[in-house]
Design a protein that fits this description.
Helix content is 51%, strand content 5%. By secondary structure, it is mainly alpha-helical. Among the domains are: 41 residues; 102 residues, no CATH class. The chain has nine helices and four strands; from the N terminus they run ααααβαβααβαβα.
Length: 226
């Protein structure tokens, strides 16, 4: 009799858990509807906060709650953090965003993963001299795998400036003065960072590609002739 009672209790509990999971599953709304509804709940300050990406500095593991940035995250004044490294530190601040902010919006984490993360590769200008697109793609793949494993999901690479001004201090971040070569390397790095299937979790690495120098050069010319 006791065994029957225990069996019925376990069965009832299982059905209850299943029903709760099923209810949660049914409660998930289509992405567009969910996003629209979330935005409609946000105050102007919270919307501006999502555009705020401060540099966190070196937050000591376990000290996120008492850091300057913690209160801002809790108040919805921060959308992401730049230059925070390690799973433990990222987990600390993400927990504040998800569990303590009004809307529970997760943070995005960015870092300049330019030529490697834990594994260091030659600088982009050095890589460009190889003309080896397979090696370039592989270096980006390794960097993305290492960085995303730590929780970094946003990088500011590849840098696709075409630099023909030796006095410019960031020539080393680009791929030289040949647009064809820079284009090929840019495509290889994007494939390496993101792969060819963005639905795969291991490819969740957002890129912010920069194209500044051509604009600056043209602007400078226009200023000189005006």
């Amino acid at each position: 009799m006791k065994l029957k009672a225990v069996a019925l209790l376990v069965l009832a509990t299982s059905f209850s858990v299943y029903a709760q999971k099923d209810k949660k599953k049914q409660a998930i709304k289509p992405k567009q509807e969910f996003v629209s509804e979330l935005i409609s709940k946000m105050t102007l300050e919270e919307k501006i906060g999502q555009l705020n990406l401060p540099s966190s500095g070196d937050i000591t593991t376990g000290q996120a709650k008492s850091s300057n940035i913690a209160k801002k995250i809790e108040d919805g004044q921060v959308g992401g953090l730049f230059n925070i490294k390690s799973v433990a530190k990222i987990k600390d601040v993400q927990k504040i965003a998800v569990e303590k902010s009004r809307l529970g919006i997760p943070l995005i984490f960015g870092m300049d993963v330019i030529h490697g993360y834990e594994t260091t590769f030659p600088i982009p200008l050095g890589l460009s001299t190889s003309w080896d697109m397979e090696a370039v793609e592989r270096s980006a793949r390794i960097a993305a795998t290492e960085a995303s494993a730590d929780g970094i999901n946003w990088t500011f690479s590849p840098m696709l400036d075409i630099s023909r001004e030796p006095r410019w201090g960031r020539v080393s971040e680009g791929n030289g003065e040949d647009p064809y070569l820079a284009g090929k390397i840019g495509a290889a790095m994007v494939r390496g960072y993101q792969g060819d299937d963005l639905s795969k979790k291991q490819y969740n690495f957002i890129l912010c590609k920069t194209l500044r120098t051509l604009w600056r050069a043209r602007s400078r010319k226009r200023l000189q002739h005006s």
